[in-house]
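Bench notes, bay 3.
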Amino acid sequence: MNVESVRGSSCDAVHAQGLTRVFKTKNTQVTALSSLDLRISSGTMSALVGPDGAGKTTFLRMICGLLTPSAGRLTVLGLDPVREKRTIQARVGYMPQHFGLYEDLSVQENMKLYADLNDVPPEIRTERFARLLEMTDLKSFTDRPAGKLSGGMKQKLALACTLVRSPELLLLDEPSAGVDPLSRRELWEIITSMVQKEHISVLVSTAYMDEAERCSMIMILHEGHLLRCGSPEELKKLTDGLCRRATVPDSLSARTFQAMLLDNSDVIMDAVPEGANVRFVLTSPEIKTEEVLQSTVSLPLRCVPANPTLESSFMHLLKNVAKNTVTVQDKIKHAESCKADNNAAFNTLTAAAKKTSDAVTSLQQSEIVIEVRDLVRRFGTFTAVDKTSFEVRRGEVFGLLGPNGAGKTTTFRMLCGLLPATSGYLNVAGENLRSATAQARSRIGYVSQKFSLYGNLSVMENLRFFGGVYGLPPLILRQRIQEVLDQFELTGHENDISGSLPGGYKQRLAMAAGLLHRPEILFLDEPTSGIDPLARRMFWRQITSLAELGTTIVITTHFMEEAEYCDRMLIQDSGRMLALGTPSEVRRLGGNSSTIEEAFIHIVRQARAARMAAGDA
C-alpha cells in the first residue's frame, strides 16, 4: 500500500523504520504493528488515529520502552528505547488510558508522590505545583481525595502528575475518553499551552477527529499498518468534492434518515447527523445526488455541497481499505447470510420514510414506559440529583447529558434499579422502582460505562453466563447467542478472552450480553466512550434498528454529536435540570447554536454563572 512520506526535521522526537511488533501466545500470533515507517518532528503536536486494534497503544508503549520491537528500528529523542530505556523514560512523560491515581490520596499528595517517583528536586516543586494547579484549575481542591473528583478533574490531575517534571516528549493515550465537552476543551487548552510555553513534543492517541485536527500532523493506523500521514488540511482533500449536506425530512428522525443513506452503500460511503441536516460522503463525484436521494427516501429534499472534514476522510480511507480487502467469495457469503436481515432493515426504514406528521404525533402520544417525577438522591448532606422530572415513550431514544459530576450516572443507576431514590416517583416498564425493582429489572438491559463483564472468561463463556442469568432456555440461548454474535460482528472471536479485547470489541460484547433477553428498555451508560468513528457508526446503526422495532433506549454520552441521534434529551448540572427537549429545541435554548456541543456549553455556562451570581455554588 502506498503511504505518503512524512517530512522529518534534523531533530526528530520519534523515528521508526520498518518497526514491527508481534504478540505471541501459545496458539496464536498477532501482528500489532507491521513495517511502520514514520518521523515525528520535535516541538510539534502529532496525533495517532485509527480503529480499535489499529496498534496505537502498542506504538506509544514501544516509544516509552515498555514494549520492545520484534523487528525494525526505533529511536526516541535520538536514543534507542531498548538499550537506553531508563534515559528515555526520564525524558518522556506518558499518560496511559487508565492513569494510576491513588484515590485515597489528596490532589496535593498525588502530585507529591509522582514528584518523588520522578526525582523532582524539592527546590523546583513549589513553583511547578503552583503553575500546574493554576493551569488545571485544581488549586481550590488540593485537599480533596482523588476518588472524590469528577471524571474531568481526574483527567486534569492525571495530566498534572504526568507533568510534575517537564518532559521533552509527552505521550497521551486517549486523554479525554469519558470526559465532558467543557473539561475536554480545558484539557486541550492545557496541552496546547505546554507546547507553546515549554516547546515540548506531544504525541496523542485519540478517537476524536476534532482533537486530531488540533495537531500539525496526523497518522492514520489500521491493523498495524500506516495508511496515511499528513496535516489536517492535506487529509481533508481526500474527500474534496464528495461531501453533501441534506436537510432531514420532517417525517423522519435524523438517525433514521442517516441509516437509510448508509444502507445505500454502493453510492454513499458515510453519513452522520449534523444539526438539522445529515452530512454524507459519496463514493464518486460523478454520482447524481438528487437521483440517489429520490430513490432512497422518495421525498423532495434540499441538498447542497459541504466542505470536507477530517472525519469524512478518515471514513473514506477505512471504507476503501475494507472494500479492497474483501474477496469475491467473502462478498457472496456475506450477502447470502445477511440478505434476510438487510431486506427486513430496508423494509422497516422504507416504512419509516413514509411516516406522516400524523404518525409522528401518534408516536409522541404513545405509551409512556419511563415516568420520573421530582426524583431526588442524597448522599449524606450532598444532593446528587435534585427534583428531576421527565417521561420517555416506547421506541424513543432519550439522552441524559451533562458535565462530569452532573448527576447523570446517579440518575441512570436509579432508573436501572441499581440505586434507590431518596424521594420522588419512578416508574419503569410499568413497575414502581421504589417497591418492585426485581420485576422491572427482568424487562431492561444495561450496558455500563466501564466494561463490567468477566474479563477472564471468553466471549462465548460470558454470553452463556449472562443468558443463564436472564433465564433463557438452552435452545433459545444458543439461537440468541448466534444472533448477537452476527449482529455485533463478534463471529470468529468466540474463544477470545474478554479482558484482552480492544475497547471497541469489549463494548460490542457488552451490548450483545445486554440484548440477549430482548429487553423492552435498554440503558446505555457512555457506550461509545473512546471508540473510533467507524465503530460509532456501526453502534448507532444497531440502535436505530432497535428503536424502529420498539425498543426504548436511554443513553448517557459525552460525545455531543451523538445527541443529534436522540429524539429528546435532558441536560443536567449539579443534579439540576437545565434543559429538556428535542435536538432542535435544545439548540434554540443554547442561543440558537448550530451544534448540540455549542448549545450544551452555552446552557451549562449560563446556569453556572447564574448560580455564582446567586451565591449558590
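Next record in the batch:
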Amino acid sequence: MKRFTFFLAFVMSMLSFTNAKADKLQIRLAESTIYAYQTYSTGNVFDGKYDTKFWSNGNPQAGYTFTVYLSSSANVGDIKLYFDNGDLPADGAVIEVDENNSGNWIQAGEPLNGVQANDVVTRNAGGVYTKKIRLRFTQASAYRFRLLEFEVYEYEVAIQERTISAVAGEGGSVTINGGSEAVTSTEEIQLVAAPDYGYKFVCWTVGGEEVSTSAEYTDNTDGDKEYVAVFKKFEDTDEWYAAIDKPTFGKTGNTTFIKSATVGDVAVENIPEYIAGNDVMGVGKQSGVTTAIEVTPGAEFNLNLTYHLNWGDLAIYQIDNDGATKEYGYYFGSWTSDGSTATVIENIANENISVSDIVDGVCTVTYPISINENHNSGDVIVVRAITGVTNDATNSAFEKNIAKGGYVDFLFVVAEKEPVEDTSEWATIYFSYPVALPEGVNAYIVTTVGDGYATLTRFEGVIPAETAVILNNGEPKGEAVDVDFSTNLLKGTTVDTYIDEEAYVLSKVDGVVGFYKAEMTDGIWLNNASKAYLPASAVLNKSAAFYGFDWDGTTGIEQITENREQSTAIYDLTGRRVEAITVPGIYIVGGKKVLVK
C-alpha cells in the first residue's frame, strides 16, 4: 500500500506539471562530465518519458556537472528534476543557471538536501535569462547518479505596460525588438547591443547602475526604463588579438613547424619556438603570436614561410573582428604511408603560390596577402598559418581539428595611410569653338555622379564647340574611349555669368581635387568666363559639400567623400579672386558680402 501511495503521488506530480500554466521549454542537448553506464545516455532525460533514465557509470565527485541546453534562451522559472534510485548527500548538489549566457552561474534556490529515490526536486530560477541549466555536485557522492527527467519551465510574470528605450554609448549600436524606436508593451522586450569594429560590449546600465553583461538582454520587469549600452575601445593589440583569437583544438599532433618568416624582405620577429617533447601524440608543438607588424589599408605583400614539413597539412586564414576567411589551402597529402615534405608540396596547386626547392626537408612557401582597404588605423588583422590539421576534405581546418600546438598567428596592425597629394594641374574649360588637345594634356567629361563621387571618362582628339570638360596635365586616368558628348553632365559659360542654381565647381583643398559646392550670395554665384561647372541637379545628394573622382575604365576607385568646411576665399564684385583686401569696397568673403571702408 505504501508503494502504491508513493507511486500515485509521483503520477499526480507529473499531472500537476502537465496542467501547469507555464510553458515547458524545449531542451535540445544534455551533457555530463561523467560517462553513462551502458546505454543509459544523457538524451533519456529530455525524451518526455519517465521510464527511461541517465545512469552514471561511477559515483559523482565534487565538481561533476550535468548540463542541459535549451533550444533558445528564455526567462527560466521552475526547474524540475525527477530522480530514480540513487540519492544525493545532504547539501551535496545545487541547481544553477548561466545568467544571460555570460558564464556567471547563479544558484537557483536551496541546495538539494538528501534527495531520495523517486523524489521530484523543484527549484525556481526567478526569471533569469539563459539557455544553460545544470546540476552541480558540491560533494562526492557515495552512490551512482540516476536521473529520469530534466524539465525546465518558462518564468511567468504579469508585466504592467511600460515603455523601454535604449541608447548606445560610443562604439556600438542597439536594437529594441529588432528596431530603433522605444517599445511600449506588456510583453518581454529584447535588447541587442552590437559593438563596432575595434570595440567590445561591456554592459547594460539603467540610471548608471549595471544591469547585465550580456549583449542580448530581455527586459521582463515593470516600469519605464532607458537602457544604455556601454562599449569599450580596444586600447592595445593584446585586446584586439583576444577579441579575434578563435582557435578550436582537436587532438591531432603535428611535426610540421615554421622555422622562420618574412613579410616581403623584412624578417618577422617573435615567431613562437618549436618545442620538442611530449604532446598528445608524443610529437612537437608550436603555437602563439608574432610581434605586431604595421601595414596600411590596401597593402599587398608576400608572406614567406619557411617550413620543416613532415606529416603535416597546411592552411592560411585571414582573421579580423568580423570573422575568418580561408586564403590558401588547406593542402594535404602527407598523411599517407610514405608521407613526406614532397607529398605536401605536390598538393599545393595554386598559381598564386610559389614554393622553393626542398633542402633537408625544409622549403619556403610564398603566400600573397592583401589587406582590405576599408580597414581603419588601429585595426588588427591576424594571418593564421595552421599546420598538422586532420586530412579530411569535408572539414574546415579553421573550425575543426586544429592540432594542439599547430598554428602560428602573424599579427598585423593597420597604420594610418598617408594621403597622397595630387601635384598635377587641373582646370575646366568651355569654349564656343572646337579646340585640339595639346600634347601631354588629358581631357575628361563627367558621365555619372554617384554617392560621394563623380565618374570621369577620358577622351582624346578635339574638344567640340560648346563642350564643358576637365583638363589635367598629370598621368592619364582610365582608358581613352569614344565618348558620347550628349551624356556629359558638365555645363559652362563663355563669359562671366551669375548662376542662380546650386552647383559644384572644380577646386583643390588640402591637396584634394574634386567638385566643391559653389558659394552662393543672395541665391547666386559667379561662374567665370570659359569655365565649366557641375549643376546640383546632376548629383545624387544635393546637400553634399564635396564629390571626389572615380575614373571610368579603371579597376581602382579613387574617391573621397568627407565634407569640407566652407572656404574663406575672397572675391571682388567682378568675380575675380584676390589674395587680400587692400582697398575699400564691397567683397565676397566666405560666400557673404562684406563692406570694407
